[in-house]
Amino acid sequence: METTERIVEAYVRYVKGWATIPNLRCNAQKEIDLFAIDPVTDERWHIETSVSISSGFSALTNDPFEPGEHKERVKAASARRKLGFFIAEKFEPKAVEERLACFGCAPGKLRRAIVTWEWKDGVPEAAAAAGIEVWALPEMMEQIAVKSREGRSYLADDILRTIDLFARGIHAKAKRERREAVQAPKLSAASLPVPSTKLGGFYVYENWTNKRARLHGAECSYCKGGRGTQGSTNDKNGEWHGPFASVEQARTKLATLDYEDKGECAACVMSA
């Protein structure tokens, strides 16, 4: 199992609380990355993971997919980043449907999701029309880190411990820098440095699609001054609130949002 697939399974099991079967083999050389069952609702999920952090192939697209192009060397990389590839080669092959039927997945009764690093405009809408959800791996890693900070469970998996330690390290560094800033001697107006070009303030991101909200510092890689990981303020799945001059103002805004899943970003937690 690849590292990204292990992270996805850990998220589904540790955060969602679902039962999982990874790398479920099918006939015709097909394979299901992750099969999951929600024990509360009895919903069954077919989850595929395709993550690339390459600048050229990190985003899932809705470009037209031609059958067989994923097998051509010069087209394979881009073809495997297309929504049509997942529909034709991952979700709809007869061998996949037959394998899922063995687990009580009747046609039309199965939930499906694609995990990716990011996506281009229009992809979530096109995926939803095909009965597929699109999940962002960075957000899933953030939720794993938030869950670990609650201290309810010991993380036995090496990858989960790495995510937890990384998040805690960033949090500790931010606290140290804030403490040093408070203790630093105040400068006179004449000795003040030239204003920095760094982003400032705090933002709250409200995700309507996934029904959650997060508080971020402006310089957080997930925030980027209210532009998010997609680098644009035009987000059809949610809304950025801010900037707020203080973390207290941002927390007040966060408290007004009616979501059970809301909190402060694990990568830039603002608590003193």
Describe the protein's architecture and organization:
The protein is of the alpha/beta class and 272 residues long. It folds into 2 domains: 3-143, Trna Endonuclease, Chain: A, domain 1; 196-272, no CATH class. It contains 8 helices and 11 strands. The chain has helices at 3-16, 76-79, 83-91, 94-101, 123-129, 137-149, 158-183, 247-256; strands at residues 19-25, 31-37, 44-49, 59-60, 110-116, 118-119, 132-136, 202-207, 212-217, 238-244, 261-264. The strands form 3 sheets. Strands 1-2-3-5-7 form a 5-stranded mixed sheet, with helices on both faces. Strands 10-8-9-11 form a 4-stranded mixed sheet, with helices on one face. The longest helix is centred in the middle third of the chain and has 26 residues, at 158-183. The model is unreliable at 192-197 (pLDDT under 50).
What's the short version?
This protein is an alpha/beta fold and 272 residues long. It has helices spanning 3-16, 76-79, 83-91, 94-101, 123-129, 137-149, 158-183, 247-256; strands at residues 19-25, 31-37, 44-49, 59-60, 110-116, 118-119, 132-136, 202-207, 212-217, 238-244, 261-264. It has eight helices and eleven strands.
Query: Helical percent range?
Result: 25-40%
CATH architecture of the largest domain: 3-Layer(aba) Sandwich
Using the alpha-carbon principal axes, give the shape. Answer: elongated
What is the number of strand segments? 11
Give the percentage of residues in beta strands: 15-25%
Number of domains: 2
